[in-house]
Specification:
The longest helix has 28 residues. The chain is of the alpha+beta class and about 300 residues long. A hairpin with a 6-residue loop joins strand 7 and strand 8. Strands 1-2-9-6-11-4-3 form a 7-stranded mixed beta sheet. It has a 4-stranded antiparallel beta sheet with strand order 5-10-7-8, with no helix packed on it. It has one domain: B-lactam Antibiotic, Isopenicillin N Synthase, Chain (Jelly Rolls). Helices cover about 25% and strands about 20% of the residues.
């Protein structure tokens, strides 16, 4: 069943209370839209066009970016996800290497670099506002590993009513998603009702999605929202997501500010590589992997 609730829409130009509003959306929804985010619409459209042009490359060229690691590199259509195709810059600091492998043009490279800088700057602002909303200071995502993933859904008459992306939680702390302005189908699982809620496109906005690492860092406060993509009409669908993953030099753990007598520490410090191994080897795609890292502390 799909219910007609709507995820929050947050104005990033708001001055008073923005941090707390973002934190509340992370806790109650695990997903929200942002407007006045600072990324020009023209750049978003140019990046969408570049993404589409890269997917139009021959399979043998796209496969140059393939990576055996889970969730990395080129992801071609297969029996499990027959309508999905993905291209990934697995670490945005390695963008030039990705472009070299695809023989990207000067124009394509320029747009990719500009887009990554703009959306990474936006991620930094979200991180600072999350800190502020929790009564903390600092740049939360400074030095974190970030991945840019381009998605293409080959929807056709035979795919209507079927899944383009299976139900899952993101592995990241958060994802900033530029969804398709012409083709809907993105749905989340409501935290309270456990029903599917459509997250239909709103012009000029981006979607923020909380993942498993976000739940661990927040000591269980943030909702690592389950989501999927469903095909409603036989049209090609494109989206572009920045995954703000994890710090490269330390384990993930909740700040002491988020731990108290009412909120005992729920998770041990988590090594990102170990978490990724556990998540994919156990096939726990819908959030269950975080429970493996729970402390032995229980509350009545």
């Amino acid at each position: 069943m799909v219910i007609t609730k709507q995820v929050p829409v947050i104005d990033m130009q708001k001055v008073e209370g923005l941090g707390k509003e973002i934190v509340r959306a992370c806790e109650e929804w695990g997903c929200f839209r942002i407007l006045n985010h600072g990324i020009p619409m023209e750049l978003m459209e140019e990046m969408k066009a570049v993404s589409a042009s890269l997917f139009d490359l021959p399979e043998e060229i796209k496969s140059r970016t393939a990576d055996p690691g889970p969730g990395k590199g080129y992801d071609g259509r297969n029996a499990v996800t027959p309508f999905y195709e993905g291209l990934s810059i697995d670490e945005i600091s390695s963008t030039d290497e990705f472009c070299d492998r695809l023989d990207a043009s000067t124009h394509q490279r320029e747009i990719i670099h500009r887009y990554i800088k703009a959306i990474r700057d936006l991620a930094g602002k979200l991180g600072r506002k999350l800190m502020e909303g929790n009564g903390l200071v600092g740049d939360l995502f400074e030095g974190w590993c970030c991945q840019l993933r381009m998605n293409k859904y080959h929807f056709c008459p035979e795919s209507v009513g079927l899944l383009g992306a299976r139900l899952h939680c993101d592995t990241s702390f958060l994802t900033i998603l530029q969804d398709d302005g012409n083709v809907n189908g993105f749905q989340i699982v409501d935290r309270l009702s456990v029903e599917f809620v459509p997250v239909d496109h709103v012009p000029g906005t981006l979607v923020v999605i909380i993942g498993d690492i976000g739940k661990i860092w927040s000591n269980g406060r943030y909702y690592n929202v389950k989501h999927r993509v469903l095909c409603f009409e036989p049209k090609l669908r494109h989206s572009i997501g920045l995954f703000v993953n994890w710090p490269t030099d330390k384990k993930i753990e909740a700040p002491s500010k988020l731990v108290d007598s009412k909120h005992p520490r729920l998770y041990i410090p988590v090594d990102a590589e170990e978490y990724i191994h556990v998540r994919y080897s156990s096939e726990m795609r819908t959030g269950g992997a975080v429970d493996i890292f729970r402390t032995t502390t229980t509350t009545s």
